[in-house]
Amino acid sequence: MVNKVPPTDIVGANRSALVEGDTALPMSDIWRKQFDGALGDAMQAIQMRADAELSITADDLRKVSFSRTTQGFIGSHLSISQRDDLKEL
């Protein structure tokens, strides 16, 4: 999935299972325990700053959320030039 705005982390993060609609987790939710105090505040500030710098919206997160439904485009419908561009990615 390609979106004009990337999530700050991979959608799967460290989850052992994904369900329909899962989106990228905030940094503070990637670890098994929540961080308290100054460290927790710093992690939240880093996440907020990263999201602000990317200008990521809830709609952007929805577009890159996990889905079992096939999305995207059919490669055989692309021109040779478009296929070459895709290979470059």
What is the compact description of this entry?
With 89 residues, this protein is mainly α. Helix content is 37%, strand content 0%.
Number of domains: 1
Q: What is the chains' assembly state?
A: single chain
How much of the residues is beta strand, in percent? Answer: under 5%
Instruction: Kindly report how far apart the N and C termini lie.
Output: 12 Å
Low-confidence parts, pLDDT < 50 over ≥5 residues? none
Coarse morphology: elongated
Mean pLDDT: 84
Count of runs of 4 or more consecutive helical residues? 3
Radius of gyration: 16 Å
Q: What string gives the helices and strands in order?
A: HHH
Binned, the helix content reads 25-40%
Task: Give the number of DSSP strands.
Answer: 0
Most strands sheet: none
Q: Which structural category do the helix and sheet elements fall into?
A: mainly alpha
List descriptors.
89 residues, elongated, mainly alpha, single chain, 3 helices
Would you write up a description of this structure?
It is a single chain. By secondary structure, the protein is mainly alpha-helical. The protein has three helices and no strands. The termini are close together.
